[in-house]
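Dear support,

We are seeing what looks like truncated structure output for some complexes. This example has two components. We would appreciate it if you could run it in full and send us the complete token output so we can diff it against ours.
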Amino acid sequence: MDIRSLSSSHHHSQSERYIHKVGVPPKQNLFKEFRETLKETFFADDPLRPFKDRSRSQKFILGIQTIFPIFEWGRKYNLKKLRGDLIAGLTIASLCIPQANSSFVPPLIYAFMGSSRDIAIGPVAVVSLLLGTMLQNELDPINEKAQYQRLAFTATFFAGITQVTLGFFRLGFLIDFLSHAAIVGFMGGAAVTIALQQLKGFLGIKKFTKKSDIISVMHSVVASWNWQTIAIGASFLSFLLFAKFIKNKKFFWVPAIAPLISVILSTFFVYITRADKQGVQIVKNIKKGINPSSVNEIYFSGDYLLKGFRIGVVAGMIGLTEAIAIGRTFAAMKDYQLDGNKEMVALGAMNVVGSMTSCYVATGSFSRSAVNFMAGCETAVSNIIMSCVVFLTLEFITPLFKYTPNAILASIIINAVIGLIDIGAATLLWKIDKFDFVACMGAFFGVVFSSVEIGLLIAVSISFAKILLQVTRPRTAILGKVPRTTVYRNIQQYPEATKVPGVLIVRVDSAIYFSNSNYVKERILRWLEDEEEEVKAATYQPRIQFLIVEMSPVTDIDTSGIHALEGLHRSLEKREVQLILANPGPVVMDKLHASSFTSLIGEDNIFLTVADAVSSCAPKLVEEQP
Amino acid sequence: MDIRSLSSSHHHSQSERYIHKVGVPPKQNLFKEFRETLKETFFADDPLRPFKDRSRSQKFILGIQTIFPIFEWGRKYNLKKLRGDLIAGLTIASLCIPQANSSFVPPLIYAFMGSSRDIAIGPVAVVSLLLGTMLQNELDPINEKAQYQRLAFTATFFAGITQVTLGFFRLGFLIDFLSHAAIVGFMGGAAVTIALQQLKGFLGIKKFTKKSDIISVMHSVVASWNWQTIAIGASFLSFLLFAKFIKNKKFFWVPAIAPLISVILSTFFVYITRADKQGVQIVKNIKKGINPSSVNEIYFSGDYLLKGFRIGVVAGMIGLTEAIAIGRTFAAMKDYQLDGNKEMVALGAMNVVGSMTSCYVATGSFSRSAVNFMAGCETAVSNIIMSCVVFLTLEFITPLFKYTPNAILASIIINAVIGLIDIGAATLLWKIDKFDFVACMGAFFGVVFSSVEIGLLIAVSISFAKILLQVTRPRTAILGKVPRTTVYRNIQQYPEATKVPGVLIVRVDSAIYFSNSNYVKERILRWLEDEEEEVKAATYQPRIQFLIVEMSPVTDIDTSGIHALEGLHRSLEKREVQLILANPGPVVMDKLHASSFTSLIGEDNIFLTVADAVSSCAPKLVEEQP
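Here is the complete output from our reference environment:
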């Protein structure tokens, strides 16, 4: 290497800047490399870090605390915190009484296993109603009530299993594949579907389609309505919507408890007017007492097993995305780290247990978590309190809700899901990234016109198509010298940057892989041709003698890529143009060496920076001038 | 912007270097952007360039010349070129007489439409024998000869259609998705499969499996052999293998015509000894005369249509990859550009016509093209000459080959395919890129143990998995200042590079997308934590106050990515660490503006280079020192 550095520094005798040679990273053995990749892929968050150099007993305790974080923060728990949690717990409890059933067991489990301090666990509009829509494609909730419930529990069970599995096998990163854009579109679509489903209760229609797509729903909406139902529903819906507009910080709880209020009011109203006699449908038979066991109601055989599994996987994934997203948000606000994979295990375990105590899929609810957070919760204890309150409700108060009109629940749900149609986010997507917007719309229309699964599928595939496109047709840029600096930048971005006569500087903006290697090669050659034409046109311009490829963004290269570079080198030789590489990264440098490409173009044609490369060309250029 | 540059330049009062502000590329309208992307994706090679500002008649002539390049180079054709082509033509003709049937029509067509000057067209070991293997999975070539042939023509037809379609719709880049690694493995696998198939003829076995996977073949190999057959086959195979080893440039044609020699010799030998009486199988009924029309033999209905289609697509793709690869290689040697898509149309048309004149899939043969090239061919005329010679052969000489023993054809084929097992290339793959090697092996074993399609599928999916992994878990690096320069590089690659006290410089080596945004965020925070621990351990070290993210390799960002950056910014604020961006590219800068992230972290916290960023931190740091 000594000779090499000499020879190169010799080139720039007149440029007094010291030319530093490009480093080749220390060769590490295969196994180590492999382990590194594995670690970064599955254990990016290095979960075993705290276990390092501890005694066995400590390790055991740590292990327990990792599975049940409550034993960790529980020891630091105090009255002050309890106060916060109590208020928060009561507040969120008031919100979930209408859908109480699934708000008793899951929060308890989560409180012990979960690591987020702010999530409020319970059935969530999107997930549980999504679940409903998918179930109704299989069974009729009225006539086939029994199987319907059993299928629901089965789905919940598998949702839990999915979550635990994902978490346990460190596949947490899979949910990152649901891009923000996809989620926005998906939520919107789900909201519309769900709202439409609720028209049944809202308009007091007797027989309603089981399908979830907009067409068939619209068909069944054109049916005999019940005006009393509509009157009640409409009035309370408007009340709820009005409550939403109270942006006052002091009254943040108004929209929060509005649902409860309207339930109580409407129930009372129906009770005294006996409106149910006028065909206003009411909840009627409501299960009293806490959740009975439902272990042996889960389908472990038959084709409902499969259906339940399919539905469960989807519901589980969606549940996860929401919970993790919420967890991350609040963790960022209070600045504590959240282990996604651990969260998943907790959520999964909670749903598995839930499915055995007749609960539907539960997850972190954004609205309630927000309330929980603003009510000043400190730890997951608020969840425990909530579940206790719910328990008492189930025991003693629930029967009173017998007279609650379905229209109210419908309007509560509609009111809840309307908030999910986030037009602001969509427009922002359009402004920032057209491709994201397309993915978003794909998800939206997929869900609205076809089904949840299709919507997700569309969104995900569009998102991936984008990545692949970017890797197949990477951007390339001509660089120029930014005046009064030694940096070379894209002349499109910096119009003031000036080209170096006789030298063409190209930057490739992607790893060079089989999918783009040929394109990159031919694109560079095309740049060269264009440049040569320009030069011909201009007078007193030396012909292009050096092609500098800025490799900084080239994060990786594979054999096809190297072959492409070799091809490039060959055709450049034909045109008497010298190929020069600037700042190849460690991985690339490593592979260029392994394939002995470095010796092909000459060690001293690889430079640390474009500036070095240029200053090495300059003298040679001069000689060749006429 | 003026204020911004002022304020920033003020920061570096003591560093006299002029701080250049990061450029925002001129906003271009949506349609233009869209058109650009489309062009780069499908018309990267700008095929209409020559048509610019020409008269209509000129355009017409150009159009003809584009479809039939022969009218372009034909006009410059001369005797000198003819001499080269004549010799080359005769040479390659001698090679393909054993498999003459498909070497008559296709070369003619190609000569008119193709744009490569060196490719020698004809049936190729891999493709045609691959075709055979796939056909034999459907039909028995002996007992169901008629359907077998019809299916073969059908496959050929659809192979042609596939190629034309790909070319016409500018989908040429799709074949780039077959990575070099995949092809190496695939070829090797195909070679093994094909060689095994030939054992039938080579060992003179009567009944043989129709399956192509190694297990079932091995079963049928354990059968009654015919020693005379083996004797003949073995002797000539060894002759062929020996001929291979003549590396002498002067005798390059020896291995080339060895097949022909052995055919003639063996035929003569069998004719005089009447070895066929001793159960040495011979070709027997050979079609005399030129190819009859086979238009109405192609299946355009029934389930053979589908099978033919499936086989055709695969064979067509493989044919393309080989032809294009060869074309590119020789084009690079003689330094002329090759339009992949145009090539495809030519190859496709040639196969469509071929399928109607009882030819099997033909494509560019590497071995023969090499001979063609070394025999000094000038243009595609050598193909015309070859096809004429073949024509004469078919007319008059073929009948003599009635006595050619199958064993010879088998050994010729075996000899041909053995060359395809490129262990050197495989080892190189291992040396350069482990992942490529895995893809290669996947293809190889997929083909050997299961089927061609499976092999391809495995290879392609591994290759893509690699890309996705790279995009899901991008590399990140800590940068340090390279001594005696103002450049900051990966401290792993440049151990001499030194960190800047109080400043952490991280480089993200990939576009930031939904699939990696969370990982990138958390990874950076982990770098920070590690660094802070180090600082705590060390004495007289200022705490980390600035986090500089080097964005050069970040070629693109989507909304999820921007959200991640916002999240990063928030949690850094909590730790009182200032987030600074260095050298974001045009696209990224554009989106950061659109999402007003720039104003969130402050315009003057975005710098052109890491050096600028550091020099802006330095003074602030000093103030905060105790």
